[in-house]
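Handout for the seminar on molecular recognition.
Each group receives one record of this type.
Step one: identify the two inputs.
Step two: read the structure output and locate the region that could contact zinc ion.
Step three: write two sentences on what you found, then compare them with the reference statements printed after the record.
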Amino acid sequence: MCKRNKILILLFTLIQIGCTKTIIYNVPLYDAPIDWKEYETRKKTISEFSKYLTDKKIFLDAGHGGEDRRNKSRNGEVIEADVNLRVVLNLKNYLEQAGAKVFLSRDKDTTVQLGYRSELANKSGADLFISIHHNAPSKVEDYYTNYTSVYYHAFENDYEHEPCNKDLARYIQRDLSYVMNNPGGLGSFDGTYSDYIIYPKEGFSVLRKTKSQAVLVECAFHTSRLEELRLNNEEFNQIQAWGIFRGIAKYFRAGIPNIKFLEDSTNYTDSLKTIKFKFDDQDNINNRSIQVFYNKEENEFYFNRTEKTISIPLIIKNEKYFEIKMIAANSNGNHLRKTFYKFKIDSDGKIKLIE
Ligand SMILES: [Zn+2]
């Protein structure tokens, strides 16, 4: 081949490259997870996870939809509301196959007001609330930012923070980012974030107003050059749902501690009263994780490892009501799901749990 022809071919190739919107050389847009790829293995995994998911009540919220279809990808072809819904419907399918009871805020492209989503979740009596979204950067011209993140309500040191939300966020974050082959954001060690980072002191409305354990998943950035190529792929949406499904199942597999107030355990000596709580027999509690608060002030306690009880001495003055906040985690790091306990002191001095 003469030199002139070689130059022409090179020029032609360069022009072609310049004209192509996106060039991907033999790089698959995604990998099918090994426990999902073959139908039989998938079925086996679902049946294995059904041990932890049977009868769990889970509320899934597909973000946006109906009148709210503004969030779009760079090429305009990917609409966030639609991707959220596809992920939710696939996730519902996996969870139901594993025996869970699933509630939805929407099952089609329809408007559901933000406040109404939490109202629906609270009415459903679900144990978990999971809101599914896709993200966009603050600068519209940023086509490169792309990561997976999961949000929980409030900062860890805030009194209103419920550690169980972060537990669930960690499990979903790990398995979702793994199946999507996406990193977590650099603003956090494990890819989970407080919603106060986005809206200081308020957080996301759906996380603040929902009474059950709740997280908000930002699966990826629909604005990213890579994500916009795969988010409209139905198989990829199934894989996304699979990552979240695996995260939820593994969260339950790690066990959740449970505690109950021992009504007859109350001891009275003048103003000093001791109340007692007992963990479930199978709970393997990490004693270093325990913290007790009495009316928002840190309070002392005694943990009896053999009996699995916590005794809390209280100096009660004239109050008729008081609140205990209790934090405790099992050896896998999963925390109690009920943290706040409200008590009433009767006229005869007896302490009753009211909430
Ligand atoms: Zn969104």
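Reference statements: The mean pLDDT is 92. Residues 18-253 form a domain with the Aminopeptidase fold (CATH 3.40.630.40).
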